[in-house]
Amino acid sequence: MGTPLNLLPMFGHTRGNRSAATCHFKCGNACAKDVCNTSTNNYFRDIADAALTRRAALGLGGVAAGAVVVGAHLATAPEAAADFGGNGQGGGKLNFKAIAPVPKNVDALTVPAGYDSHVIIRWGDPIFNDAPEFDAKNQSAAAQAKQFGYNNDYLNITADQGNSRRGILVANHEYTNEELMFDAEWAAANPEEVRRIAIEAHGMAVVEVRRDKAGEPWNYVKSGARNRRITGSTPFTVDGYAAGSDLLKTVADPTGKRVLGTLNNCAGGTTPWGTVLSGEENFNQYFQGTGSATDARYGISSAPSERGWELTDPRFSAQNKGYENEINRFGWVVEIDPQDPTSTPVKHTALGRFKHEGANIRVAEDGRVVAYSGDDERFDYVYKFVSKNKISKDREANKKLLSEGDLYVAQFTGDSPASEIDGSGKLPSDGAFDGSGKWIALTKNGKSQVPGMSIEEVLVYTRLAADKMGATKMDRPEDVEPNPVTGKLYIALTNNTDRGKPGKKAGADEANPRAGATSATANRDGHVIELTETKNDATAVTFNWNILLLCGDPKNPVSQQYFAGYPAEKVSPISCPDNLAFDSKGTLWISTDGQPGTIGYCDALHKVTLTGAERGKVEQFLAVPFGAETCGPLIHDRDNSVFVSVQHPGEGGSFAAPISYFPDYITNPAQAKKGQLSGPRPSVVQVYSPAGANNGKGNK
Ligand code: FEO
Ligand code: CA
Ligand code: CA
């Protein structure tokens, strides 16, 4: 039934940082549409407070970039001129020499000298004994439900307790690229099956992994007892203060406590009790709304959705009687237990509903747990949740910690005079973009703290609640991650070229200091904030903050940059910070989403030193292939391994005319065997040093 799906992206809608296809498929062209946050909330105070913390001492170091040799499916970059060995202060255990940035049309995974790469699992790989072999030209929803999903994003791999040779991999499957997944002619003739396959290609995957010994590459186990696919149709339980609310009831679920599926799962986090949190991000694009004000605040259009899922299942249109609230059942943090494939995953309403990039936990001194989360939209907010109860040895009780607690939104205050924050990105006279801040309570002890809104309304319409309370409008908060070594919080703000534009758009403030319509000032490259909770207490309601990085390409500067005072000419270029990770020493690693469109290089994974003389030094570790984004970085430096989700390789091409052949590089379709594809497949990759710690000198 229904009309054929339009497989081609609507070109001309991008805003410079992503390809047109990424904008279309990933976030429903969010940036081409009006800004969702039209609230008059423009709180930002600039005060002089010289007593606040200052950045660490500056230092010296060396970096130079050379040309990349390409052509093979694995490109090893030549050594940079200076030693990037991780022996400096703050460095982790992975020794490497930074690679040179890779031109954006290079179709190779590029790793440092001395490193190799290994594909653990690809889109379509069967993960059950009875799952059919991948066959792109004969795909079905039933097959996809038993295979690894599309566009892996968040990633974690953990070895089982007491067994270093067995482990478990959990990945998010954020969205689908129908133009790369399907032959256009077949898709046009089978629109209903295409939509059903897409629904099953979303969600999450749990897959057991095995290796010969620690330090060796992991392989996935097709018959793993814990293997599981969670998709756009898997039943979820709803918990928290909004569970059972009228706002969550539909004709198919009069309880308001049972939802089918999770969608647009972007980043996430693994909890100390071994479950995985996953953020439902750009959920708006899957629904046809009614045109209400609350729909508008979430970017939900009353027009038919571009994916057309409402043609397959009536719940995807709020215009269908009885399904007015289905939209409200997405936009949550979900929790799954990868150890128990029979467990019912949960949507936690106490953490609020917005475009959750992900959620990451820090355990406070008193045992309460704090979950940090960003709302990835231009001019949206940073949140934290503080649990009511304390962590214990009771795993089942821990799985309920996110069911009850208080939700806060961040308000940032600068310490420099407003006149010195001119939107150019130039440092104010005190030498830092920095200041203090407050966590403003939206809920407390199970009660709303927002005038005129019930707690159910606060949790379901969290963006509107935060608007009322004076939250600070940020430049697209992506990952918000606490450093497991220091407790400091790092916030990736990926970009926002709309700041300071005419209309009701907020201008520069000290926490978002680049603004304006011209590329000389617009925040196209993003920045990273470092936040320290008062007394380093995760439950504190106040904090200090500073900008660690104003990203960009120092060799071809378009706008002002800042690398915590480290010499800009000595860092790897970096743009559009997205996912954050830490190694065992608390060194920051940043993956990017959008470098091809801004600084002209393939997306990357960078190491950033946080302490000592080299604080602010950015060193590129790898680059992903043509059209791809780097996601889910995972740094196992004790195993000399780095894992990445290579998401949407070849985006910008099509099934018939690929621009990437990652990861198998079968360029002749006639040579593709059963289970293979002559074209790109999103994959999870392990980059490892076969020689172990090689001191950055490569293999002997
Ligand atoms: Fe799915 Fe905010 O990236
Ligand atoms: Ca300042
Ligand atoms: Ca992301």
UniProtKB/TrEMBL annotation:
<feature type="region of interest" description="Disordered">
    <location>
        <begin position="672"/>
        <end position="700"/>
    </location>
</feature>
<dbReference type="InterPro" id="IPR006311">
    <property type="entry name" value="TAT_signal"/>
</dbReference>
<dbReference type="Pfam" id="PF05787">
    <property type="entry name" value="PhoX"/>
</dbReference>
<protein>
    <recommendedName>
        <fullName>PhoX family phosphatase</fullName>
    </recommendedName>
</protein>
<feature type="region of interest" description="Disordered">
    <location>
        <begin position="493"/>
        <end position="523"/>
    </location>
</feature>
<dbReference type="InterPro" id="IPR008557">
    <property type="entry name" value="PhoX"/>
</dbReference>
<feature type="compositionally biased region" description="Basic and acidic residues">
    <location>
        <begin position="498"/>
        <end position="512"/>
    </location>
</feature>
